[in-house]
Every structure is written in structure tokens, then in C-alpha cells.
């Protein structure tokens, strides 16, 4: 069962392009969100909106369910 799940997940992740973001350090998310917000490229601005939506609010208690922090 676990093998099938891994295969399905791997197939899904390989089905199209992905953007991998690794953030570490003190206030890394806050800093990363600021850096994304300064981007002028239209496609990357859309990515900024998606990143903010996925992460949730800086305060985990204020983050919506389904976000990384929620």
C-alpha cells in the first residue's frame, strides 16, 4: 500500500513543472515573503500570491486551515 502511494505521488509530482522553495533561518518566511513582494515580473508576482496563500498568516494561530501554518 505504501509503495502504491509513493508511486502515485511521484507520478503526480513528475506530471508537470514544480517550484521548490526551501526557507530556513530566523523569520525566514517573513523575509521570503518580503523578497517575493518586490518582484516586478508578472509571472513571479502570481507566484508570490500563491506562496502567500499556501503559507498562511505569519502568526500560526491566525492562519487558515489547509495552509502550511494552519
Kindly describe this structure.
InterPro entries: NDK-like_dom_sf (IPR036850). The structure is a single chain. This protein is mainly α. Helix 2 packs antiparallel against helix 3. Helices cover 51% and strands 0% of the residues. It is globular, with a radius of gyration of 15 Å. It has a domain at 23-70. It is built from three helices and no strands.
State the low-pLDDT regions, or none. none
Q: Radius of gyration over alpha carbons?
A: 15 Å
Instruction: Compute the number of strand runs.
Output: 0
Mean pLDDT: 74
Order of helices and strands: HHH
How would you characterize the largest beta sheet? Answer: none
Give the count of helical stretches. Answer: 3
Label the structural class.
mainly alpha
Distance between the termini: 28 Å
List keywords for this structure.
70 residues; single chain; globular; mainly alpha
What's the structural blueprint in terms of helices and strands?
Blueprint lengths: L1 H12 L14 H10 L4 H14 L15
Helix pairs in contact: 2-3
Short description:
This protein is an all-alpha fold.
Amino acid at each position: 500500500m505504501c509503495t502504491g502511494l509513493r508511486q502515485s505521488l511521484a507520478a503526480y509530482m513528475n506530471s508537470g513543472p514544480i517550484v521548490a522553495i526551501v526557507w530556513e533561518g530566523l523569520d525566514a518566511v517573513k523575509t521570503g515573503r518580503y523578497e517575493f513582494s518586490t518582484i516586478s515580473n508578472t509571472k513571479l508576482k502570481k507566484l508570490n500570491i500563491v506562496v502567500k496563500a499556501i503559507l498562511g498568516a505569519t502568526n500560526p494561530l491566525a492562519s487558515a486551515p489547509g495552509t502550511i501554518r494552519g
